[in-house]
Amino acid sequence: MSTLDVAAVRADFPSLERTVHGKPMIYLDNAATTQTPRAVVDSIVGHYYGHKANVHRGVHCLSQEATAAMEAARERARAFIGAESTSEIVFTRGTTEAINLVASSLCQLFRPGDNIILTVMEHHSNIVPWQIAARRNGLEIKVVPILPDGSLDLDAYRALFDARTRLVAVAHVSNVLGTVNPVAEMAAEAHHHGAMILVDGAQAVAHTKVDVRAIGADFYAFSSHKMYGPNGIGILYGRREHLEAMPPYQGGGEMIGHVSFAGTTWADLPYKFEAGTPDFVDAAAFSTAVDFLEEKDIAAVAAHENALTAYATEEMMKIDGMRIFGTAPGKAAVISFLLGNAHHYDTGVLLDQLGVEVRTGHHCAQPLMETFGIEGTVRLSFAMYNTFAEVDAFLAALRRIAPML
Ligand code: PMP
Question: Pocket around ligand 1: residues whose beta carbon is below 6 Å from it?
Answer without folding.
Answer: 31-32, 94-96, 123, 125-126, 171, 175, 200, 202-203, 223, 364
